Amino acid sequence: MGSINYDDSDVLDVLIVGAGISGINAAYRLHDELPDKKYLILENREQLGGTWDLFKYPGIRSDSDLHTFGYAFKEWTGADIAGGAEILAYLKKVAEDNGIAERIRYKSKVEAADWSTEERCWFVTVNQDGEQKNYRARFLYTCTGYYDYNKVLHAEIPGIKNFKGKVVHPQFWDLKEDDYRGKRVAVIGSGATAITLIPSMANVTKDITLVQRSPTYILSLEKYDPIAKVIRAILPKRMAAFVIRQKNIARIYASFHIFRTFPGVAKAILGRLTKSQLPSDIPLDPHFKPNYNPWDQRLCICPDGDFYTTLREGKAHIATGHIDQVTSNEIILKNGERIPCDIIVTATGLKLSVGGHIKTTVDKKTVDPSERFVWKGSMIEGLPNYALSIGYTNASWTLGSDCTAQYVVRLIKHMDKYHKSSVVPKPSNRDQLTQRPLLDLNSTYVKKAEKDLPKAATSGPWRMRTNYWYDLVQAKYGGYDDLVFA
């Protein structure tokens, strides 16, 4: 693909905010299908990668298989469950091979964006390495992920200020291996991060304990899928990648719908699988018997059962119950159990946020996204020429963000064809829309954020996306109901 030279002061066709997995995806689709369009990516950090550049905690990896978490246009050839360094290298290669890297402006924090109806253009204010810079763009596309990069989710832990050791949150990890070597570590939390940390730290700690208020479902998956190996052996490379990707998507949705339809059966199956991997001294109840149904929260994945292996080898322990008090050197549960520790890791969830905290206005009037509905999981009610990238809660994030990217490309083509310069989502029957959360999970960190996130509805194009195949068809061929063009 050839590159287009232009000055940053030009009016851009598309301004992408964020150079993580979604931003690079968006840039590729633009570069591939609309090569004459001028675009830039503004990235707050010093390099691309988003999550995979930010998180430094031990064992950081995807909790989705990389054949679906990776891009449809760039086959993944490594392990099905891969680490952060491998994912970051993959993203860098995609950006470099497709001329995307040269379009990224680093240390560029977007602070405000104002849509001018008169000029049919976004005026974007950016703090670029300490200096204010202004950009103009016909289309603003936020690919900033789903959580706050600057703040962690505050968790009420009684007496945590009494603790004399080190307290660290995975999002701002500042420990080296020698800092926890031979130490007693308590990891508070039961989500994917905690399940990743335990086996990654256990080989060097004196003792490490998972301290959880309530358990979660943890499913072992093979790091290298044996079926994928067979497919690669008999099919050409690109065809094999496509077949493996579709197989894994089918597996995701089959388990999701079966588990949601038959929760009792799902609980029994997951319970038996878990019990078969536990040591005899760790009972299923209460440590691995969640009080919710499978897929009410995301299932936690552990590659090759590494979490369970760590428990069986006696390198890690588990404690379940509400924390009564943290003292100078231990955690005391309300059931009386005491967990001595030198280091506490608060793996208690992320502070959710979409849109990158950009002060967004239309003709100088503030728009609060939390009061607006989301159109087809891609655009916000009342914001002209604006898209946001949101992935799935019941499948890999990238599947959803790619649907948005393909939709945005088609929408721009449609506007060019009919000589339209603006498009804004506007529900024709807003008073009849029934509100529902944007993210369909009952995890604590999701529930805490509901009031701050845009809303979904239960009908029409305002429903949240839930099925990749259906949404991909919509992105490529669907109608433009409740969009107003001008």
Structural account:
- A hairpin with a 2-residue loop joins strand 5 and strand 6.
- It is built from 14 helices and 25 strands.
- It is of the alpha/beta class.
- Helix content is 30%, strand content 22%.
- It folds into two domains: 275 residues, FAD/NAD(P)-binding domain; 187 residues, FAD/NAD(P)-binding domain (3-Layer(bba) Sandwich), CATH 3.50.50.
- Strands 1, 2, 3, 4, 5, 6, 17, 18 and 21 form a nine-stranded mixed beta sheet that branches.
What features would you highlight for this structure?
22% strand, alpha/beta, 25 strands, globular, FAD/NAD(P)-binding domain, Dimethylaniline monooxygenase, NADP, nine-stranded mixed beta sheet, N,N-dimethylaniline monooxygenase activity, flavoprotein, 2 domains, FAD-binding_MO, disordered N terminus, 14 helices, 486 residues
CATH class of the largest domain: Alpha Beta
How many individual β-strands? 25
- Supply Rg: 23 Å
- What is the total number of structural domains? 2
Q: Helix coverage percent of residues? A: 25-40%
CATH topology of the largest domain: FAD/NAD(P)-binding domain
Mean pLDDT: 93
Poorly predicted ranges:
1-6
Give the name of the CATH superfamily of the largest domain. Answer: FAD/NAD(P)-binding domain
General shape? globular
Proportion of beta-strand residues: 15-25%
Cα(first) to Cα(last) distance is 32 Å
**Which structural class do you get from the secondary structure elements?**
alpha/beta
CATH architecture of the largest domain: 3-Layer(bba) Sandwich
Largest sheet: 9 strands, mixed
SS field, number of helical segments: 14
